[in-house]
Write a structure and sequence with these properties.
Blueprint: H1 22-43, H2 49-56, H3 60-88, H4 90-110, H5 114-128, H6 132-142, H7 148-177, H8 179-186, H9 188-200, H10 213-216, H11 222-225, H12 227-240, H13 242-273, H14 278-305, H15 310-329, H16 338-348, H17 351-365, H18 371-400, H19 404-408, H20 410-438
C-alpha cells in the first residue's frame, strides 16, 4: 500500500470491532477494580500530608518529595508501560502492577524513616503506572470504537471513586487507629483484586486478534518486531502522529490543578491558609471528587456524540479553572468565602474529565497495536505538569515563609505553556485524523 502523510505506511485492513456486551463488561470491570485500588493508594497521602510531616519530621519541600517522587516514577514509566502493554498484553502488566503497588503501600505503612518511606512511594508509583494504560487498552480491545470516549471517562470516574474512598474512609481510619493500621489495612485491597485478575481477566475476546503487538508484528522484519527496533518503531510512529502530541498537551494542561490540590496541597492550603477545620477541608476535597464523577459522565457523552467539541471543552476547562483559581488565591484579605471555595472545588472536578479528552485524540491517530504506547505518551502529560507544580509549590512555600498565594500562582505558568501547544497542534491533528478516517 502507498505511504501515508507523515512518512508512515498505510494501515492494514482493520480487524472486526469487538462486540462489547456482558462478557466485555465483566472483564473490563476486573481491570477497573485494579485501577480503583491503585488510585486509593496513590491519593492516600493527600489526606495524610500533615500526619506525614509530623511522623517523619520534614518541611514542605521534603513533604512534596513524597508525591514528587511517586509522580516522577509514574510519569517516567508511562512509555515503558505502554510498550509493555503492546508487547506483553494487559493481564501480565496489570498483575505486575498490582503486586508492586501493594508492596509499596505496605512498605509505606511500616517505614521507620523518611528515606524508606520515599522508596516505598516510588515502588507504589511504579505499580500504579501500570494500571490506567492497561484499562484503556482493555476498553479498546473489548468495546466498539464508538464507545471509546465513554469507556475512558467511566474508567476515570471509577478512579475518582478511589479518591473518594481515600477521603471518606482512609482519613477517619488514620485519625482514629493511627498510621500503620490505616496504610497496612488498606493494602489488603491490593491482595483482594489480584484474585479475579489472575483467574478471569483476558486480554482480548476470542477471535478478535492477537493480544500484543509482538504477535501482530510476527510477519514483520525482526528489527521492527523485536528488541530495540520494536521500541524505537513504536515510540517514533506514535510520536509522529500529531494526535498523540496533541493528546499529551491536552492532558498536561487540564489535569494538574486538581491533582496538585488532591494529592498534597489542598488539605494544607485549606487548613493553614483558609483557616478551615480538617473536617471542612476534607468535605471540600470530597466535593472535588464527587464533581469529577458527575462531570465525567457529561464530558464522555458530549465527546462521544460530537468529536468537534473536544478542543472547546478542553480550553473551556482551562479558562474556567484559571479564573476560579485566581479568584480564590488572590481574594482580598487572603481568605475566600466558603461559597467561592465550593465553586472552585466544583470546577476543579472538571479537570479529570477534560484530561481524558487527550486520549480521544491519541486513540484514533494510532492503530490497535500502538494503543498502549500512544496512551503512555499521552498520560505522561498531566503527571509531568503535576510533578512540576508539586515541587514548585513546596519550594516556593519554604522560600516565602508559607505564602500560599505566591506558591499557588505557579499553576498559571504551566497553563499558558499548555494552551500555546494545544493551539499550535490542533489543526495538524484534525487534518491527520480525517486522513485516517478515509483510509
Amino acid at each position: 500500500m502507498a505511504a501515508t502523510a507523515g512518512g508512515s505506511a498505510a494501515r492494514p485492513a482493520a480487524p472486526p470491532e469487538p462486540p462489547g456486551g456482558r462478557r466485555a463488561a465483566f472483564v473490563w470491570s476486573i481491570g477497573v477494580a485494579v485501577y480503583f485500588v491503585a488510585v486509593i493508594f496513590r491519593t492516600s497521602l493527600g489526606v495524610a500530608g500533615l500526619d506525614a510531616a509530623d511522623r517523619f519530621q520534614v518541611n514542605a519541600s521534603a513533604l512534596a518529595a513524597f508525591s514528587l517522587l511517586q509522580l516522577l516514577v509514574y510519569a517516567g514509566m508511562q512509555i515503558p508501560v505502554g510498550l509493555m502493554v503492546d508487547r506483553l498484553g494487559t493481564k501480565r502488566v496489570l498483575t505486575l502492577g498490582a503486586v508492586l503497588f501493594t508492596a509499596g503501600q505496605i512498605g509505606f505503612a511500616l517505614s521507620p524513616s523518611y528515606g524508606m518511606a520515599l522508596a516505598a512511594r516510588a515502588l507504589l508509583g511504579c505499580g500504579d503506572a501500570m494500571t490506567f494504560i492497561s484499562v484503556l487498552r482493555l476498553g479498546t480491545r473489548w468495546f466498539p470504537a464508538r464507545r471509546g470516549p465513554l469507556m475512558a471517562q467511566l474508567a476515570g470516574l471509577v478512579g475518582m471513586a478511589g479518591n473518594l474512598v481515600s477521603t471518606l474512609v482512609l482519613a477517619p481510619v488514620l485519625h482514629e487507629l493511627g498510621w500503620v493500621a490505616a496504610f497496612a489495612g488498606s493494602a489488603v485491597a491490593g491482595l483482594v483484586v489480584l484474585v479475579p485478575l489472575v483467574l478471569f481477566l483476558k486480554d482480548t475476546p476470542e477471535g478478535q486478534g492477537p493480544a500484543s503487538a509482538a504477535s501482530a508484528a510476527s510477519a514483520a522484519p525482526a528489527s521492527a518486531a523485536g528488541g530495540r527496533g520494536f521500541v524505537r518503531n513504536q515510540i517514533a510512529e506514535s510520536w509522529r502522529e500529531p494526535g498523540t502530541r496533541l493528546g499529551l498537551w491536552v492532558h498536561f494542561t487540564t489535569q494538574f490543578p486538581a491533582m496538585v490540590f488532591l494529592l498534597l496541597w489542598g488539605m494544607p492550603y485549606l487548613v493553614e491558609a483558609q483557616g478551615l477545620s480538617r473536617s471542612a477541608a476534607g468535605g471540600l476535597l470530597t466535593l472535588i471528587v464527587a464533581s469529577n464523577m458527575a462531570w465525567g459522565l457529561v464530558y464522555g457523552q458530549i465527546v462521544a456524540r460530537r468529536a468537534a467539541s473536544r478542543i472547546p471543552l478542553a480550553l473551556g476547562t482551562v479558562a474556567t479553572t484559571s479564573v476560579l483559581w485566581a479568584a480564590v488565591i488572590l481574594h482580598p484579605g487572603g481568605r475566600a468565602p466558603m461559597w467561592l471555595l465550593v465553586v472552585l472545588c466544583v470546577v476543579l472536578g472538571t479537570c479529570g474529565p477534560a484530561s481524558m479528552i487527550g486520549f480521544d485524540f491519541a486513540r484514533p491517530a494510532n492503530p490497535p497495536e500502538r494503543q498502549g504506547t500512544a496512551s503512555g505518551i499521552t498520560n505522561m502529560g498531566g503527571f509531568l505538569a503535576s510533578m512540576t507544580t508539586l515541587l514548585s509549590v513546596g519550594v516556593l512555600l519554604d522560600a516565602t515563609g508559607q505564602d500560599y498565594r505566591t506558591a499557588l500562582c505557579s499553576v498559571f505558568v504551566l497553563q499558558v505553556l499548555g494552551v500555546t501547544r494545544i493551539l499550535s497542534l490542533r489543526g495538524a491533528a484534525v487534518r491527520r485524523e480525517r486522513e485516517h478516517a478515509r483510509q
